[in-house]
Specification:
The chain is of the alpha/beta class and 517 residues long. The protein contains ten helices and 23 strands.
Length: 517
């Protein structure tokens, strides 16, 4: 009797030490699986255990590895709005994921303009009432930055409804809504942006070693990490917080706006802007979840210093290549080109870093396959770096995807500068994506074109649409060599468009260094 009891207790102890069956947070109730692709399903269990995955009539089995990880691949599936269950069995343990749909899945990343919620965008009351879209789901990832690649994310899938849509990412939601409306299939949106972050943090660290300036910034952070004193920093934060409370109470009593609440200074290696940290924390856990592609809205953080802005195109191309390499697939990637901001343009050309970041996105689109761009230079706000009209941003991203990924016979977006030809005292500019024709939006003459000679001094130019070209000239520059268009932080009067209403991308024909350098 005693031996049996000891044996039973021993079995219970051994059982308690066995790894429980665990699925990533991505595989949870309300999820959307990618249609028309082989779909990976993975997780962790006891090493060397047979695992069976069942979904939509399919059954796949595999033995978990020495580390307990397992992965199976479901065969390609057609889109389905019918809620079904995905079941995973490992020995006597099982997990059932409910309300699973099959459709189009997009990864949505970037900084604060991507993270801006629907309840912060324009016309929220109207959007809330209309947000009854049960086949649109969003996973808002709230994972932390990390020095090491993480195996799992934090967050959950939410079904779109008037009650939930307020905390959906606005740009991603409006993109997904337009995709769903046009295609008639479920849409899953993986939302993993973080405000105020640079592109380097979204990129695998090893791939950044070829960029000396990025490595120099990392070295500075590493040096600060060695002297970081958590206790001292907490004490300083407590003091700043008390001072803030006093000022906030005074401001309230005087009817003024309260000052910004202080934040405790993080350990440099815990920062959301340490190179690679958000790739490790928010992108890596999703690899290789089935996705159709990615949308990207970032660049503001890299546009405050000219040296960083000039590097942006290279960093963006590198990030896209690394993400595709991680997934093992050349998936579509659509980026938002930064909108106008601050005081309207005064000089013919204003070499603001933001103009060069826009150029970096344009260059990535030209250099890499399956990369598109939503031009938003016409829908910014003078006083806010977070323009509220995210409906149009989402629509323009969706237009890119519908035309280039889904093969719809529509114009993808605005006109893109392709080449130039000199003709006496004039320069003839050729464009792609002209749609049904070029126009000066709102009528009148074209604005914000500038021309320069060999002296590199730009003057305002006359610009005329001739067929699918624009002819640029100025009496002040008899021998022109370069043209720029909408080249400023806020080229408010830029008006080159196609008849479909999409603005042309800002561009330059030269490769001269910024005037301040």
């Amino acid at each position: 009797m005693r031996r049996s009891l000891v044996f039973i207790v021993g079995l219970l102890l051994v059982g308690s030490l066995q790894a429980e069956l665990e699925l990533p947070k991505a595989f949870s109730d309300g999820m959307v699986l990618q249609r028309d692709q082989k779909v990976p399903v993975w997780g962790w269990t006891e090493p060397g255990t047979k695992v069976v995955v069942s979904f939509a009539g399919q059954k796949r089995s595999v033995e978990s590895g020495a580390d307990g990880r397992f992965m199976v691949w479901l065969k390609k599936m057609k889109a389905s709005a019918k809620p079904r269950s995905l079941k995973v069995v490992s020995g006597s343990d099982s997990v059932e994921v409910e309300n699973v749909l099959v459709g189009e899945v997009w990864l949505c990343a970037g900084q604060s303009n991507m993270r801006l919620y629907v309840d912060e965008a324009q016309d929220f009351d109207k959007e809330k009432v209309a947000a009854n879209h049960p086949t649109i789901r969003m996973f808002v990832d709230v994972s932390h930055p990390n020095l090491k690649p993480q195996r799992d994310s934090r967050g959950e899938w939410k079904v779109c409804s008037p009650e939930t849509v307020g905390k959906f990412y606005a740009t991603a939601y409006f993109f997904g809504r337009d995709i769903q409306k046009e295609l008639g299939v479920p849409v899953g949106l993986i939302a993993c942006a973080w405000g105020g972050t640079c592109i380097e943090t979204w990129t695998p660290l090893a791939s950044l070693e070829k960029f000396p300036s990025v490595m120099a910034s990392k070295a500075k952070a590493d040096a600060k990490a060695k002297t970081y004193d958590a206790a001292a920093e907490k004490a300083r934060y407590v003091k700043r917080l008390e001072d803030w409370k006093k000022k906030a109470r005074l401001a309230k009593a005087e009817g003024k706006k309260a000052p910004r609440k202080p934040r405790m200074k993080k350990h440099p290696h815990q920062s959301e802007n340490y190179p690679g940290n958000l790739f490790n924390g928010r992108i890596h856990p999703w690899i290789p979840y089935g996705i159709r592609g990615a949308i990207w809205y970032q660049g503001e953080c890299n546009s405050y210093v000219m040296d960083r802005a000039l590097l942006y195109g290279d960093l963006l191309e590198n990030m896209i290549v690394q993400w595709r390499k991680a997934w093992g697939e050349e998936f579509p990637f659509y980026a938002v080109q930064l909108p106008s901001y601050k005081a309207p343009q005064v000089e013919p050309v204003e070499d603001d870093p933001r103009a060069f970041v826009r150029e970096g996105v344009l260059r990535a689109m030209k250099d890499l396959p399956k990369v598109g761009m939503a031009v938003t230079v016409d829908i910014g706000e003078i006083k806010s770096n977070h323009p509220k009209n995210k409906q149009e941003v989402g629509r323009r991203l969706a237009q890119q995807a519908l035309a280039k990924t889904y093969g719809k016979k529509i114009v993808a977006g605005g006109s893109i500068y392709e080449s130039m030809k000199k003709d006496g005292g004039k320069i003839i500019l050729k464009f792609s994506d002209v749609g049904s024709g070029l126009v000066a939006k709102g009528g009148g003459s074209l604005k914000t074109f500038a021309v320069a000679g060999a002296d590199r001094k730009f003057v305002a130019a006359d610009a005329e649409i001739v067929g699918d070209t624009v002819v640029v000239s100025s009496p002040a520059v008899p021998v022109p060599v370069a043209v720029r268009y909408a080249w400023a932080i806020n080229p408010a009067e830029c008006n080159l468009s196609n008849k479909e209403g999409f603005p042309a991308s800002p561009f330059r024909t030269d490769d001269w260094p910024p005037m301040e350098q």
